[in-house]
Predict the structure.
Amino acid sequence: MSTPRRLASGGSESPPVSAAGSVPGVAPVATRGARPAGRRAAGSRSPDLGWLRLLSLVAAVGLWQVASNTGILPASKLASPASIAHTAYYLVVTDSPTYGTLQASLLASCERWVIGLALGVAVGVLLAVITGLSRVGEAIADPILQALRGIPLLGLIPLFIVWFGIGQLPKVLFVMLSALFPMYVNTFAGIRGVDSKLGELGQVLGLRRAEMIRHIVLPGALPAALTGLQLSVVFSMIALVVGEQINATSGLGFMITQAEQFLDNSVIMVALIVYAILAVLANGAVRLLERKALAWRRDFGQ
Amino acid sequence: MRGLSRAFGGGSVLDGLDLDIGSGEFVALIGRSGSGKSTLLRALAGLDREATGDLSAPGPVSVAFQEPRLVPWKRVLANVALGLRVADPLAAARTALDEVGLTERASAWPGTLSGGEAQRASLARALVREPRLLLLDEPFSALDALTRITMHRLVLRLWKAHRPAVLLVTHDVDEALALADRVLVLGEGRIAHSSPVTAPRPRDRDHPDLAALRLRLLTELGVPAGETDEL
C-alpha cells in the first residue's frame, strides 16, 4: 500500500504495475511471506478490500496522469500513462526501423530468458542431486560451486563478451548462470534437510535406494527447490535486463538502449512494464506450481 | 537375539544382552530413562549400525515408532502401501486400514490426521507386511490417556488376529501389565528381570496378581514403594 503513496508524493521511476507484483531486483520472498499472513489476519475482511486495492492503483495512475498534464512531472523526465499507452500501441502496430515491433522485441527477450532459465534450473537441480545424494559428489563439486557462486555475476559481463562475443550466447549464458546458483543451493539444502526420521522409516520399510530417492528424498526437497525456483526466476530476469542492454541488436533491452539515444523515455517505460509483466507472470506460475505440488502442507491455507 | 552390545562414547549401554521371544508372544520391555530401551529396539530394527550381536527372526520385522512418521506428501493409503512388495499393495493397504478403523481416512493427507489416527495408520503400515516380529517403540506415549485406552484395545485385537511376536518398549508399567504375556526389565545393559504375567486375558486392572507384579516391577526399576500406590 505504500508504493502508490510514494508515486503520489512526487514521482518515482517504478511504474504502478509493480505494486501488484514483483519488479526485477526485488526478491519476491518478502511479499510472499506477507501475503498469507495478511490474508489470515484480515480473515473475512479480505474480499471486501479487493476493490480498495484496485481503486488505489487506479488512483495512483490517475494522479500520475494529472501530474504529467499539469507539468509537475515534465514529459522529458517521465512520460504520462497516456503517452506510455500510446507508445505501446504504436510499437505493436508499427514496425519502425528504430525499434522494430514490440512483439518482436518481446519474443527475442523471452527466447533468451526461457532458454537461459530452463538450462540454469535443469543444471542446478542436476548438480544438487549429485552433490546432495553423495558425500563424495559433494566433496568434489560443492567447493567449486560455492567459490563460483561468490563471484558477482554482473562483473563477469566484460569477460563473457571477450570469451563469447556479442551475440546470443553470452546473454543466454548469463541468464543461465544467474538461475543456476539459487536453484543449486536451495535444492541441495532441501535434499540434505529431509527429516532423518523419514530416512529411518525408509530403512525399516526396506526401501531400495532408488525408492528412497523417489519417495522420500526428492519430494522432501521439493519445497526448498520451489523456493530456489522463485529466486532463479528473479535473478535470471535481472540478468536478462542487464545482459540485453549490452551490445544487443534485438529484444526489450535493445529497445531501451535505442530509446536512450533518442531520449524517448516512454519507450523505456513500455519496455520496463513489459519486463515487469513477465516477472509477475513467471512468479505467478511458480506459485501455482507450489500450490499444486505442496497441497499436502497444512499451512498452505487449503 | 544373542550377545547384543552397543557402546556410546565411553560406556556401553547394552552389554552382551540375550533375548528370546517366543512366536506369537507379547513381550513388554520396561526400564528407567536412559536404560537403553530404545537403543535395544533400534538395534533389533536394524537401525543401529554400531551395535554388535546376532539377531535371528523367522520372518519380516515391522516397526512402529513413537511418532507416527507418516510421509507427509503421500496420502494415508499410499503411506501404508509404501515399500510393500506384493501383487496388489493398495488393496492390502486398504484391508489394513479397515482393520485399524481408518477406512474413511484413506485418501487424507497425514497432516490432517489427529495423533491417534496417525498412530493407527502407523500400525496399519507395520501390520500390512504381515510381520513375524512387531517392534513397538513407546508408540502410545505421545497420546492422551483416553486415546491410549482405545489404542491398547486395538493392539490386542490386531495381535490376536495376526499373532506376531511383539516387543513393546514402554515406560508405563501399567501398559506393560495390561498388554503383555511377559515383562522384561532392562537394567545395567542387560535383561535384569523377567516375569510372566499370570493374570488371564482380558486383563482386569484389579487382579491381585497384577498388583503384586506391579510392586515387584517397580522395585526392580528402583522406584521405592510408596504409601499409596495409586493409579
